[in-house]
Design a protein that fits this description.
The protein has 258 residues and is of the alpha/beta class. The chain has a domain of 176 residues: P-loop containing nucleotide triphosphate hydrolases (Rossmann fold), CATH 3.40.50. Helices cover 38% and strands 24% of the residues. It has 10 helices and 10 strands. The strands form 2 sheets. The protein has a 6-stranded mixed sheet with strand order 6-7-8-3-9-10, sandwiched between helices. α7 links the parallel β7 and β8. α3 packs parallel to α6. The two termini are 34 Å apart. It comes from mine drainage metagenome. GO terms for molecular function: ATP binding; ATP hydrolysis activity; L-isoleucine transmembrane transporter activity; L-phenylalanine transmembrane transporter activity; L-valine transmembrane transporter activity. InterPro entries: AAA+_ATPase (IPR003593), ABC_AA/LPS_Transport (IPR051120), ABC_transporter-like_ATP-bd (IPR003439), BCA_ABC_TP_C (IPR032823), P-loop_NTPase (IPR027417). Keywords: ATP-binding, Hydrolase, Nucleotide-binding, Transport. One of its GO terms (biological process) is L-valine import across plasma membrane.
């Protein structure tokens, strides 16, 4: 377990008699990319909400690099380096693309209020570094040309990429991405795949919920398949593509695998 970035054991959650997540267990190795797949209603987003304590689990344990997250507020979890995105892009109106990206760096600001108010050298250096990082990430996802445009004017797919950039500005140790490819065209999906590989290459562990099976099979190290709130199967992408249970429950229904 010492090599695990995320350790999930026996998570369960019931809503009004409906067992949304039922005894879910899996381990995410450090530096890996894990995909959670399954039909709509399988419990994937609920699982993210349990991991990050947006929901309190009825049972089970979540450990982040060996430390229990029981009772830890979502904001504190983000401060520890476990950062998530949401299915619907959360864009701040009235702000540019670059400004939206910079919002994600608030956990990384080290210059104190006095240094910022007096615009001391430390505050100036920090701001330059944050701007440079934001611009580099926007370049990586193909949004550099829109840096000064209103973020709300971006197409939905571009807004999803911007949300990933904002999450990366927090310098996460582990990144939870909830359907990052939803609404993306083929070119944007290719940009996302390149970004995911770059994130992993830089030592950031990734867990993503995703329905785009071509993306999953192209970038994931391991796949965890959920069905009706339980873990149906887990293994490598190749193993999941040939698992009859997975094909019958999910892949064979409506997903395309190249």
């Amino acid at each position: 377990m010492s090599a695990a970035a995320l350790y999930v054991r026996g998570l369960a959650k019931t809503f009004g008699g409906l067992r949304a997540v039922d005894d879910v267990s899996f381990t995410v190795p450090h530096g890996s990319l894990t995909a959670l797949i399954g039909p709509n209603g399988a419990g994937k987003t609920t699982l993210f909400n349990l991991i990050t304590n947006f929901y309190r689990p009825d049972a089970g344990d979540v450990r982040f690099y060996g430390e229990s997250l029981a009772g830890v507020a979502p904001g504190r979890i983000a401060e520890r380096g476990l950062v998530r995105t949401f299915q619907s892009a959360r864009i701040f109106p009235g702000m540019t693309t670059l400004e939206n990206a910079l919002v994600g760096a608030h956990l990384q600001v080290r210059a104190g209020p006095l240094a910022q108010m007096l615009w001391l050298a430390a505050a100036r250096r920090e701001e330059r570094a944050l701007f440079a990082r934001a611009e580099a990430l926007l370049e990586l996802v193909g949004l550099a040309a829109q840096r000064d445009s209103a973020a709300t004017d971006l197409p939905m797919g571009a807004q999803k990429l911007l949300e990933v950039v904002r999450a990366l500005m927090a310098r996460p140790r582990l990144l939870l991405l909830d359907e990052p490819a939803a609404g993306l065209n083929d070119s944007e999906t290719a940009d996302l795949a390149a970004l995911l590989r770059a994130i992993r290459a830089n030592g950031v562990t990734v867990v993503l919920v995703e329905h785009n099976m071509s993306l999953v099979m192209g970038v994931a190290d391991q796949v965890v398949v959920l069905d009706a709130g339980t873990v149906l199967a887990s293994g490598t992408p190749a193993q999941m593509q040939s698992d009859r249970r997975v094909i019958e429950a999910y892949i064979g229904q409506d997903a395309e695998v190249n």
